[in-house]
């Protein structure tokens, strides 16, 4: 069977690049690849520090505070100071903990996130075009399969701590992960149908040739964004961590740098998911839809869009209240999953038969949805679950209360 | 070399995983050198918001989502069939398209059935 040769770090290595850099050393990895991995690790470390500072600033300004101020200009050195603190903090482990599993868990949480960074198409920087560490053919499957390994690490952390909150938190975490895995997969299928490829670099190219998928797959984008936010277990979806309730969930017994690894993984995942959303739906490193301005600066366009999404994720975190677990499950199974399948089927119809059958299908779907809503409107129970985000106590209508 | 070339494309994942593990190991090693270690009974007790921990940490609990897990498993396996289909269905023509639509219809019928049966209701 003839397959493509193992892909190199750069899709088109420039001719001036010395052969030593590109020649494979071990397992298809060249020196350039190892340099890339080293750069990637450093990038993750420094970006996560920046991101934490940014998040605290955003939180502060949303809540009419000012955020970190004292360490360095505008508190910019707060995060490095925190890392130093974590490094010199005592590493506690409960006496009844399952010691070996307790130690392995952080590895299983961080490494999958790190591995998923391999497939991010960064774009071009100067003479280097299309920087991507591993342009796998099956990138879309890879980016579902590898992060799912995190669930095992979370369960190991929750179980080995010997703490009831940790156990509860890890159980919730897995329930949430498996529920939001499906909508995410289905939204990726929509992308695969449109791009007719499972390669992330190809997905970006198709978007450059046609239109960004955020316009062609708006439902898919919303589903992917919500599902990825839920998989990170960030605040609208953070019943698994829930500091004010089960005090940190699976990570409750961790301290010092071991705890830091979990949070390194979480914040790296924020960047990762924003970057993947950009690559899948927002044209990757293209400047604007249909406009390839200065592809040599592709990395910067890519970063600009990613940063925007990161701020949106943080905005959601500090604006929305936490969902209850039944609301969380309903959102995944009763709203996102059916919507995802409708999106997938309609996209396939569009690809197969063109616009008119697609439009008819869309119309039929909307009519069907309206009929279903009408049929079930009277049977609905008085909001024990539902998909409401908030139930606001309405002020009574009578003006008499005003005195 | 007669190694399966296609599998060789994915060996870098293992190399990168080793690099990631080494990174964490070295970080924890440095932390181990820098951090103090003073043991104590109360320090090594589990944390229950400051109270004396009651009973064992490993308590029985109700994993309510095992029904969700079944449905999840079915759909996840189906997704593996859908990924290759999504790439090639235009080349395979209308038969492949309607074949998969039938498959999807059966799955969605299953989802609707589970919904009506109350499997998707978190009690």
Describe this structure in words.
The complex is a heterodimer of chains A (403) and B (123). Chain A is mainly alpha-helical. Chain A has one domain (91-373). Helix content of chain A is 61%, strand content 3%. In chain A, the strands form 2 sheets. Chain A has a two-stranded antiparallel sheet. Chain A has a two-stranded antiparallel sheet with strand order 3-4. In chain A, α2 packs across α3 (78-87), α10 packs antiparallel against α12 and α12 packs across α13. The termini of chain A are far apart. Chain B is mainly alpha-helical and 123 residues long. The model of chain B has no long low-confidence stretch (mean pLDDT 80). The relative contact order of chain B is 0.06. In chain B, α3 (66-92) runs antiparallel to α4 (94-116). Chain B has 4 helices and no strands. Classes of the chains: A mainly alpha (403), B mainly alpha (123). Chains A and B meet through α2, α4, α5, α7 and α12 of A and α1, α2, α3 and α4 of B.
Global structural class of chain A? mainly alpha
**Quaternary structure classification:** heterodimer
Mean pLDDT of chain A: 81
Counting DSSP H or I runs of 4 or more residues, the number of helices of chain B is 4
Q: Which series of helices and strands of chain A comes N to C? A: HEEHHHEEHHHHHHHHHHH
The largest sheet of chain B is: none
Q: Write down the overall geometry of chain A.
A: globular
Strand content of chain A: under 5%
CATH topology of chain B: Methane Monooxygenase Hydroxylase, Chain G, domain 1
Q: In total, how many domains does the architecture of chain B comprise?
A: 1
CATH class membership of chain B: Mainly Alpha
Compute the gyration radius of chain A: what is it? 23 Å
Q: What's the number of structural domains of chain A?
A: 1
Percent helix of chain A: 55-70%
The description of the largest β-sheet of chain A is:
2 strands, antiparallel
Largest interface: A-B, 86 and 70 residues
The CATH superfamily name of chain B is: NADH:ubiquinone/plastoquinone oxidoreductase, chain 3
What's the total count of β strands of chain B? 0
Order of helices and strands of chain B: HHHH
Low-confidence stretches of chain B: none
User: How do the strands line up in the largest sheet of chain A?
Assistant: 1-2
């Amino acid at each position: 069977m003839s397959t493509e040769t193992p892909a190199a770090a750069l899709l088109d290595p420039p001719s001036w690049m010395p052969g030593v850099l590109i020649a494979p050393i071990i397992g298809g990895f060249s020196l350039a690849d190892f340099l890339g991995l080293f750069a990637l690790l450093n990038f993750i470390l420094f970006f996560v520090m920046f991101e934490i500072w940014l998040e605290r600033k955003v939180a502060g300004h949303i809540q009419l505070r000012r955020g970190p101020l004292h360490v360095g200009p505008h508190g910019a050195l707060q995060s490095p100071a925190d890392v130093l603190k974590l490094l010199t903090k005592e590493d506690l482990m409960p006496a009844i903990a399952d010691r070996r599993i307790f130690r392995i868990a952080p590895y299983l949480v961080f490494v999958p996130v790190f591995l998923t960074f391999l497939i991010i198409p960064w774009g071009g920087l100067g003479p280097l075009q299309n920087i991507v560490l591993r342009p796998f053919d099956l990138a879309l499957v890879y980016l579902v399969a590898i992060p799912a390994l995190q669930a095992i690490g979370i369960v190991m952390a929750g179980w080995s701590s010997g703490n009831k909150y940790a156990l509860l938190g890890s159980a919730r975490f897995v329930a949430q992960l498996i529920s939001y895995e499906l909508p995410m997969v289905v939204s990726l299928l929509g992308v695969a149908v449109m791009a007719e490829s499972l390669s992330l670099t190809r997905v970006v190219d198709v978007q450059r040739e046609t239109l960004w998928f955020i316009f062609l797959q708006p439902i898919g984008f919303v589903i992917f964004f919500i599902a990825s936010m839920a998989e990170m277990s960030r605040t609208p979806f953070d019943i698994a961590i829930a500091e004010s309730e089960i005090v940190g969930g699976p990570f409750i017994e961790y301290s010092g740098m071991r705890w830091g690894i979990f949070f390194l993984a979480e914040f790296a995942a924020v960047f990762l998911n924003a970057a993947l959303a950009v690559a899948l739906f927002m044209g990757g490193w293209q400047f604007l839809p249909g406009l390839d301005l200065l592809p040599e600066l592709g990395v910067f366009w890519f970063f600009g869009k990613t940063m925007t999404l990161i701020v949106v994720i943080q905005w959601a975190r500090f604006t929305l209240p936490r969902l209850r677990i039944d609301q969380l499950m309903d959102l995944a199974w009763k709203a996102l999953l059916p919507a995802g399948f409708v999106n997938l089927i309609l996209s396939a119809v569009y690809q197969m038969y063109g616009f008119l059958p697609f439009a008819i299908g869309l119309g039929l779907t909307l009519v069907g949805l309206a009929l279903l809503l009408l049929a079930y409107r009277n049977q609905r129970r008085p909001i024990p679950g539902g998909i409401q985000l908030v139930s606001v106590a309405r002020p009574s209508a009578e003006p008499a209360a005003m005195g | 070399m007669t190694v399966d070339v296609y599998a060789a494309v994915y060996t870098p994942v293992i190399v990168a995983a080793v690099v990631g593990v080494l990174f964490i190991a070295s970080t924890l090693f440095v932390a181990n050198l820098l951090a103090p270690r003073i043991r104590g009974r109360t320090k090594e007790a589990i944390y229950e918001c400051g109270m004396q921990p009651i009973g064992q940490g490993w308590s029985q609990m109700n994993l309510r989502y095992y029904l969700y897990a079944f449905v999840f498993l079915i759909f996840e396996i189906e997704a593996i069939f859908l990924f290759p289909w999504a790439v090639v269905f235009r080349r395979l023509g209308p038969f492949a398209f309607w074949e998969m639509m039938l498959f999807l219809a059966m799955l969605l019928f299953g989802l609707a059935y589970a919904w009506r049966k109350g499997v998707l209701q978190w009690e």
